[in-house]
Amino acid sequence: MRCIASADVKADETGLIEAARVLGVPLRFIASEEIRESTRDFDRSAFVEQSVNLPAVAEPAALLAGRRTSLLLKKRTFKGITVAIARERSLSLA
User: Fold this and answer.
1) What's the rounded Cα separation, in Å, for the pair 27 and 21?
2) Number of structural domains the chain divides into
3) Domain harbouring 67, CATH code
4) Could you give the C-alpha distances from 38 to 48, 54, 77, 87, in angstroms and in order?
5) Helix spans in 1-94 (H)
6) Is residue 10 part of a domain?
7) DSSP-derived pairing of the beta strands 69-78 and 81-88
8) Is position 8 within any domain?
9) Cα(34)–Cα(87) distance, rounded to whole angstroms?
10) Which of 58, 54, 61, 60 is nearest to 41 (CA)?
11) Residue 38, domain extent
């Protein structure tokens, strides 16, 4: 795992901070404006839009945390925690 990423509106969530600490990975917050302006393909959520004024959090944060990313796992919710997993493709040297 390279990092945990979320939207900047979640920067004070202790669960995210603790998860990154326990897993020993960096925690990166994606600017809300970057998420709003993203043209990447991700599922939008009316609930998230109403709650934090963003089209989504988990999928765009996962996708925008890298440069050449694609979703490995679309958003899933487990006991109130929503996650999405993206993988960064390596750059071909051919």
Assistant:
1) 9
2) 1
3) 3.30.420.180
4) 16, 11, 22, 17
5) 14-23, 32-37, 46-52, 58-64
6) yes
7) antiparallel
8) yes
9) 19
10) 60
11) 4-87
**Encoding tokens for residue 54?**
């963003």
Q: Is 94 inside a domain boundary?
A: no
Name the nearest CA neighbour of 61 among 20, 25, 28, 15.
Answer: 28
- pTM summary value: 0.87
Pairing mode of beta strands 4-7, 27-30: parallel
- The H or E element spanning position 83 is strand 81-88
Backbone angles phi, psi at 88, to 5 degrees: -90, 125
**Per-residue pLDDT tens digits of the chain, which is 94 residues long:** 789 999 999 999 999 999 999 999 999 999 999 999 999 989 898 999 999 999 999 999 999 999 899 999 999 999 989 999 999 887 666 5
C-alpha angle 74-78-53 in degrees, rounded to nearest 5: 65
| Length of the chain as a residue count | 94
Tell me the residue type at 11: A
